[in-house]
C-alpha cells in the first residue's frame, strides 16, 4: 500500500511560529511532526509515501535530503492548493491499482497503521473506505460520525454547533481505488475530502477508532498540549 501525507497547509493559526517553518515541521518532543508521521507509516507497512508541499516547501525538501526515510518518500510541490481530495486525484497514477492511505500530517497521533490496514482488509462487503476516528473534547469543531453496530458510518456531521456525539474524523483514511470515481464526479480539481467526499460515502465507509493519543496541533493550545503529552511519555 502507498500513502499520501498532506503537508501543504499554511498554518496561519500558529503564527509567528509558522512564519519560518511549515506546520508539519514543528517540533514535538525533539522531533519534527513530519518525521513522526513518516516513521509511523513506513514502520507500519506502507511501501512508499508521497508528501505534498506548498507553503515553505523548501524547508520540507531540505529536511527530506537528510531524512532516514528519503529513499521511500516522494515530494511534490503544488503551485496552487488543490485541497485534500484534489491532491489525491491529481496524483492518481502514482498510487497504482490497489487500496491507498491518505492522512493529514498536522495531527499528533498514535494511529496504529498496521491495525488500521488490517481493519480495512477485514471490512464488510460494500465498504469502500475506512476512516480513522478519535474521541474529541471539542466536537463542534470536528466532523462527527455516528456508526451502527458493525462500525459502518451512518451519519456524518461536519463542524456543527450541537453534533450527536464526540467520535470525530481523525483525518486519516484508507480508500479502495473506486474513490477516484467519486472524485471525478465532483467536476473540480480542488476538492475537500472531508466536506465533499465522505458524506457521499455514508453507508459505504467504516470507522476505526484510535486507541492512543490524537490531537490537532493547528492552534498554540493544541500544540502545547501535544508537546506536554509526548514529553511525559
Structure description:
- This protein has 233 residues and is of the alpha/beta class.
- The chain is 29% helix and 27% strand.
- The protein has a seven-stranded mixed sheet, sandwiched between helices. Strands 2-3 form a two-stranded antiparallel ribbon. A two-stranded antiparallel sheet has the order 7-13.
- Strand 9 and strand 10 form a beta hairpin.
- The mean pLDDT is 92.
- Name the overall outline: globular
Helices and strands: which structural class? alpha/beta
Number of strands: 13
Overall CATH architecture: Alpha-Beta Complex
CATH superfamily: Spore Coat Polysaccharide Biosynthesis Protein SpsA, Chain A
Strand content: 25-35%
Q: How far apart lie the N and C ends?
A: 30 Å
Largest sheet: 7 strands, mixed
Rg, nearest Å: 17 Å
> Largest sheet, order of strands side by side?
5-4-1-6-11-8-12
Reported by name, the CATH topology is Spore Coat Polysaccharide Biosynthesis Protein SpsA, Chain A
